[in-house]
Amino acid sequence: MAFDVEFIMRNHFSPTRRRVLMGLVAVAPATLFLSSGITLAADQASVDDDSFLRISRTITGTDTLSVDTSQRIKGLLAERIDQFMPKLKDLADAMQKTGGSREEMLAALTDDQVDFALAIARPWYLGYVGTPSGSVLKDDAEFATFLDAQAYAKISGILPFLTYPPGAAGWWEAVPEGVDASDLPKGVASWDFQPRESYEIAAPDPAWRAYAAGDNDSIEAAQNALSSASNLPTTGSAEKTGDQ
Amino acid sequence: MAEYDADVIVIGSGSLGSLAAQEIARAGRSVIVLEAGPDTPDWKITQNYRTSARKGNPQAPFGDVPYAPGSMSPGYVNAQMEDMNAWPGTLRIVGGTSRHWTAATWRLLPDDMTLKSTYGVGRDWPLDYDELEPFYTAAEYEIGVNGMDGFDESGQGRGGTYPPRSKPFPTPPEAKPYAVQRLQTQLAPLGYRVDIAPSSRLSVPYDNRPACVGNNICNWNCPIGAKHSGYHVVQKIRDLGVEVRANAVVDKLEKGKGGKIVAVSYLSPDGTRTRLTAKVFVVAAHGFETPKLLLVNDIANSSGMVGRNLMIHPMIHMTWLSEDPYWVGRGQNIHGSIMQRRNQPDRDRIPSTRYDLLNGPHTLSMAQSALKDGKIGAELDNAIRENTSHAFTIEALTEDLPDPSNSVEVNPRWRDALNQPGITLNYKVSDYSKANLSRMMDDYSNFLRATNGKRVKPPTTFVCESHIMGTVRMGKDAADSVVDSDLRCFDHENLFLVTTGVMPTSAGVNPTLTGMALAIRAGRLIAAEV
Fold it and tell me: Which ipTM did the prediction report?
């Protein structure tokens, strides 16, 4: 079945409050994905929205994604991805067919389906579509969400959403949840604390230096390369030098 | 009818211009401040940040207006950069570029101001540290710097407070994040000393501003005003009766008899022109717009040094993943630094360098990287958690030397909405700055070794800080300098340039506090004259 994306877009961008509330109630959590009975049809706009939200919940593993954000992201992606609705239906069908857990559904996807799932994941995790510029104010990026952005949300108990600090001045001095700091010396939280009475900077280790400089892809590779070099027969080098 | 529209007209409402205006207004003189950009309140910048797709771009929340483009407005800067593909970000907005500074408030060392006579490179300043010290203190107390006495900021282990201070820091040290606590203990065995980085983010309430609560968008604009910005001074000078006019794009300075400046005129966004007169004029439009305004009007340039000697602090950073979690991002954007490379005996060959322990969260970059690698589902969630928690970034800010060929010029081939020209930047990283590379790599390798870290990529690419120095430099000789030690133009006795562009050398630290000290000093001098 062909999908009229423009029709869907026109009818999706102005959700009534009733529809939003209905969506909040009606959309099942990701764990109930299979039993939800997905149907994608161009003439059933709310069903399409629900399907996108269900898929998004499965991809993100988060049941609390907001309906408003889901509609915005769906609209942004539909503008930027060719054949968005057929691909959405294909992904929904594949997930429904596989069923099971989030990981089982994602693991069963074809490469093309994974690419499309990643395209849906990006705005949900990063909060934008396109490629934002870090300097000159010119790019194709558009805002998708902040408080629904999963990159922040997944760790928000330890790193707060920026501009939403969890406490009064100084809360950052505490040991983060789940971190073992029992080995840290007493008094380390004070700026007066110094681990040593005096400091002399150590000479660099050759392997670590080669790794830092990009000569090798890992410290192990750097150590092996240096070890191999040091095991080369010195006579060869001497002969070569002598030949020159 | 008054003979003048004001005793003093200040062009530019950033921290430096506003602090100079405040000193003049406190002495009972009338002041008008002209700002090219709009008056956008802090709450709006915070909201813009939250709804921005460009959370990695400190310029983005401030927007872009067609009549007052900043250095990151598309096309405004024609960048001719060598060995570096970056240039400083500037804002044209009420409160100025200090609204998106990190708030690092280092003083210069005495040696920083005598680089030529001490190390044989660069230039000496026309004033010394002792002369500037009272004004450093005044600036620190004005903006509420937090810091710790008893620490040698030169990094040479002098065993006490250095450089000398006439008064202690006005506010106590801020809390030390866990990440810094952990890294400090990791780096110490290889000989690196971590100390507090003084800043104007308040550790306690001060001057009607609240203490920092760790919003962690210092570089974008503090949502609660715990970090000083020029916007706070603007509010204070308004209370003193200073008239601050936003959206006033000054493009003309008029010369009169004897080289005096007699008037300025500005364009409003609709093209309306307004002319104002004053006894004294102050151009405080940072290190790009100040020389541009002078060059366009053929002012103050008998030395040929206007726009020359651009210095922007080349910088290379390294991000790595340690075997221990840090959870960088709890607190503020920078808390700690390593100063041992700041003023070493071989500074005649190798520049001053400071390592900053950056404390912005890595969440977004790590999520971007994991998604790019095709991770999805639990694998993606785990990658974000693991990499964000274990990442640390240190940046090496490197001293620049003045070179007349590094410059800011007027670019008449680009025009904004008011038909004003753009600017061209010519900049090449000097051999002196590059002489830092080998030692910096030694240090970065030690950081990796100390933390058993995996680097994200080799630290080999120069970027720069948003520090603009040298472009209207001060000196003792009118033949090679634009202003004297009072920031008065050699060519125009009633024209002062209040900008970090007056700094004849860059040192290895952020220039803003020094600029503030110079601004307060100039403001008091001007107040006594008019």
Answer: 0.95
